[in-house]
Write a structure and sequence with these properties.
- The protein contains 17 helices and 14 strands.
- It has 434 residues and is of the alpha/beta class.
- It folds into three domains: 197 residues, Rossmann fold (3-Layer(aba) Sandwich), CATH 3.40.50.720; 83 residues, N-(1-d-carboxylethyl)-l-norvaline Dehydrogenase, domain 2 (Orthogonal Bundle); 137 residues, Rossmann fold (3-Layer(aba) Sandwich), CATH 3.40.50.
- It has a six-stranded parallel sheet, with helices on both faces. A six-stranded parallel sheet has the order 11-10-9-12-13-14.
- β9, α13 and β10 form a beta-alpha-beta unit.
């Protein structure tokens, strides 16, 4: 089966590589010549555990190729996936679909023979029908169907999520399109992963509704964490008590500095706008967004309070910059909202992250001192702020850490450590919801 992936970014590269692993012949097409040149040399533009080895294996097997040329690849394709960016449109919160529609026009000009054009990007309800309209307008003779196949990839665990999915959602309107997509995903039959076949609109909405619900769970437990601090409760005990209820579940009930990344911030805003366009209230999602912003602001106050009321002149070692571990993604990371206000009030930031430093350089204010060595980051600092729970921060030598610091403040925004243990090592310890 011949598959073309339009877009060699995070979703396109992971999806295309995994389809190749399934046995399909895959060509990833991208307009960024520099990106394609690096991929041809085996240089992966993103950090995702296991992706480099998987790309190398499938390139060597001849199942995975990269190009900037649309026409020859699409002419031979059975399925063409659109996996381009849909960033939040500046000013109104809508998803920017210009890249999707540009891809549709390019695809239309190259279609020969029956082809299924598949929206893999996260797109608002109605996008698949607009893609179909554009293709018909550009190429009235084209024999094609448009389908929606949203991705559910967690950064840091994307390979496993694709190869062993909780579910595959296929939004289709013809038996031919369904048959081709089922054949492409046939390898997951071995693990009996469910395939849900729906209409186009339902498939498009499933992705937004899923991400908004998970974001809501995060904002809910973060709001509860604030109440826990005021009444003397332990948010982890509360979360465990909730999570043991099978109707609720334990996942995403982890307090912290707020959600970030490429999906939740963008998709919650887009869902709000979709609802507004159709005259439907979305108060829960709106509150989720508001609580998330408030949680990040509350973390600034928490750090300031731990420092005695003022960060002016204090040097802070910040451990972790990315929005979550096992990724280099800095998009909407809590660090971007928390560190600048501290710097504005005179804090000196010394930052360490296993994979996010290069991305952070272009997003954080000038003046941040970046340390590739953890010992360098913590030497003679007044405080440590654990921002992202990378594994290497979970087992710090606390005795050695305390000796290397000038001050004794440890602000744990991920609740990695136990308060009694930290205080026993001489730290003035602050965490979230405890």
């Amino acid at each position: 089966m011949n598959v073309v992936m339009i877009g060699a970014g995070y979703v396109g590269l992971v999806s295309g590589t995994c389809f190749a692993e399934f046995g399909a012949d895959v060509i990833c097409v991208d307009v960024d010549q520099n990106k394609i040149d690096h991929l041809k040399k085996g240089e992966i533009p993103i950090y995702e555990p296991g992706l480099d080895d998987l790309v190398t294996r499938n390139v060597q097997a001849g199942r995975l190729r990269f190009t900037t040329t649309f026409e020859p690849a699409i002419e031979e394709a059975d399925l063409v996936f659109i996996a381009v960016g849909t960033p939040t449109r500046r000013g109104d919160g809508h998803a920017d679909l210009s890249y999707v529609y540009d891809a549709a026009r390019r695809i239309a000009r190259c279609l020969k023979g029956y082809t299924v054009v598949v929206d893999k990007s996260t797109v608002p309800v109605g996008t698949a029908r607009e893609v179909a309209r554009i293709i018909r307008e550009e190429n009235p003779q084209a024999d094609f169907d448009v389908a929606s196949n949203p991705e559910f990839l967690r950064e840091g665990a994307a390979i496993n999520d694709f190869l062993r999915p909780d579910r595959v959602v296929l939004g289709v309107e013809s038996e031919r399109a369904e048959a081709l997509l089922r054949e492409l995903y046939r390898p997951i039959n071995l693990i009996e992963a469910p395939i849900l076949v729906t209409g186009l609109e339902s498939a498009e909405l499933i992705k937004y509704a899923s991400n908004a619900f998970l974001a809501t769970k995060i904002s809910f437990i973060n709001e509860i964490s604030q109440l826990c601090e005021q009444v003397g409760a332990d948010v982890h005990a509360v979360a465990r008590g909730m999570g043991l209820d099978g109707r609720i579940g334990r996942k995403f009930l982890h307090p912290g500095p707020g959600y970030g990344g490429s999906c939740f911030p963008k998709d919650t805003l887009a869902l709000i706008r979709i609802a507004q366009e159709h005259g439907v209230p979305s108060r829960i999602v709106e509150a989720t967004v508001e609580v998330n912003a408030a949680q990040k602001a509350r973390m600034v106050k928490k750090i300031r309070q731990a420092l005695g009321g003022s960060e002016a002149g204090k040097t802070l070692a910040v451990l972790g910059l990315t929005f979550k571990p096992e990724t280099d993604d800095m998009r909407d990371s809590p660090a971007l909202a928390i560190l600048p206000p501290l710097m504005d009030k005179g804090a000196v930031i010394r930052a360490h992250d296993p994979h996010g430093i290069e991305e952070a350089r272009g997003l954080l204010p000038d003046g941040v001192e970046y340390c590739h060595d953890l010992d360098c980051a913590i030497q003679d600092v007044d405080a440590v702020v654990l921002m992202t729970e990378w594994n290497e921060y979970r087992g710090l030598d606390l005795t050695r850490l305390r000796q290397r610091m000038k001050g004794d403040v440890f602000v744990d925004l991920r609740n990695v450590y136990e308060p009694d243990i930290m205080r026993g090592h001489g730290f003035t310890y602050a965490s979230v919801g405890r």
